[in-house]
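This is your field. Have a critical look at the following sequence-structure pair:

***
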Amino acid sequence: MLGLRPTFIRHATSLASSTRAAARATLANRSAQPSYPVIETCPSPTCQCSPMPEGLDIDHARHLNGTAPRYSQHLIISTGQADWKSRIEDEKDSADWGRLVADFKGLLGRGGEYHDPYNNIILGTSSFTGKSKDTTSLSAVLFPSFKSITNIPVQNASQSQSDHLRFLIRSLLLGESAPLHQQYDSSSIPSPLSITPITTPTILICSHMSRDSRCGILGPLLRDQLVEYIDLRNRQSQSQSSEGQGKEEENYIARIDDFYDSSPGVISNTPTDINMNININIGLTSHIGGHVWAGNMIIYIPPHTDISGTSSPPHPLAGKGIWYGRVEPKHVPGIFEETVVKGQVIKELLRGVVG
């Protein structure tokens, strides 16, 4: 019996090691097979792109995938400008949106009434102009809930404003009440707030120069490259159609800073005979982390993908946010075609996926 004991232990240890190895292999295999289409590299551009600025200290050594922050919601307040102080809340005495950011952080930050260390909420600003009715209120967008929020009161930090912020935090950011996520009773929303679904793809590019010059330089450059490519793509498509070389494809409209929260359609994966306009929101945003991997870009694809009542295949990335890093101007055509149009994630640029 004593002579058999070491053999049994060795066998048990070997079996346990084999089991652990098999489990690791299974997990690795699962992680290697995401629930969305992936391509390894970004295709080479088919048009002339702007050169990459020289002298930017971009980290090409560390592994990129997994560097996107883990978060439940991304709240972005519209400001109509493309740069802000390094700490946005430091502008609370000079800008309404600075005060709104400070108020949100006061409620959500450490020591705040709604602070939850296990529920990370990214709070930032954008160059979108917003859709609020007057100058005494602000607008914001929320992802991946895909909600447009308008008429957020900011005047005099009044009690009514505090009540509105608490309502937004409880209903949208912390999810304490469910009705706003799918079908909700609009009568429960305190006036004058308005909350509507976002059905338009939104592309955010970090441009926070006061925080880090790398994103400050690359952000506007990537935005301009994206707008230029969309315009070129539309002109080429129209030219080919007029010459009888192909069917009319979707006409993409770059909505620069002018946020469009409800579009007749979102994405079509197949060409059609009907000429359709598809809006794409493009905005610059404040710090989202990872300046060493500039340019930083987030693509939010809304969950609803029907186009003007026609049936089309669901977009493979519907309801998700795709975080890209180390984006250069030469990557812009490939990102638009592969990710926005076809719904494929580019592995070499990927920081993470949410949703």
Remarks:
- The chain has a mean pLDDT of 81.
- The two ends are 57 Å apart (CA to CA).
- The longest helix spans residues 213-242.
